[in-house]
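Milestone M4 deliverable, item 7.
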Amino acid sequence: MIFKEAFELMKQGAKVKLPGWNGYWCWDNDKQTIMIHCRPKDSDKGHGDVLDIRETQRVEYTFMHTQRDDWMIANEENCGVLGGRSTFGFGDAIRYLKRGLKVARKGWNGKGIYLEMYSPEVNLETIAEAVHNAWWEEKKKQGVTDHPDMIPYSELSEEVKEYDRVTARTTIEAFNYMTHSFIYINTTGLQTENPYAPKNKVPWTPSQTDMLAEDWMFVEYED
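Output delivered:
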């Protein structure tokens, strides 16, 4: 349903959500506003698991949701906060993968299987940070303690970080790493009694069934 319909239902006492949400929105008659219920780990910094929508720190992100047409009633089956399990379609699965989350299908056989997206830029920053840390350790071995760049990578200026990124890019090219993002399936944690079951990370291509499925979920909610 569109947000207008969802809003009317909230005014009537219903809890509503979007696919993939573990929380929900509802209307508070006393405050005359929408209240956002979510897990503490998903809340805005400094807030608990209930937030007045007028106090959100992510204004654009929050109100972009009002443009969607797939609002639904939140209940004990489809909402994590209410004790259920949130599932979503393939389009949302791709969106969450791009955000760095891990997803899997509820209907897949075998526990411990999930998808993840490899991102060269994320890998670049990881290697660049490792380069910086290795340089820092070498400086300490040399007895240097007052170099201005001997601080955590995250606190460096972009200009200084670029020096480490140059080394990281050279490393990536030397080892012929992938230079474009791609989705891979991770079966290294597969729980099975079959000693011959493959446990590895390989590029993944969806089937027609996968693309049409509505049982995608975050891996943290697998039993």
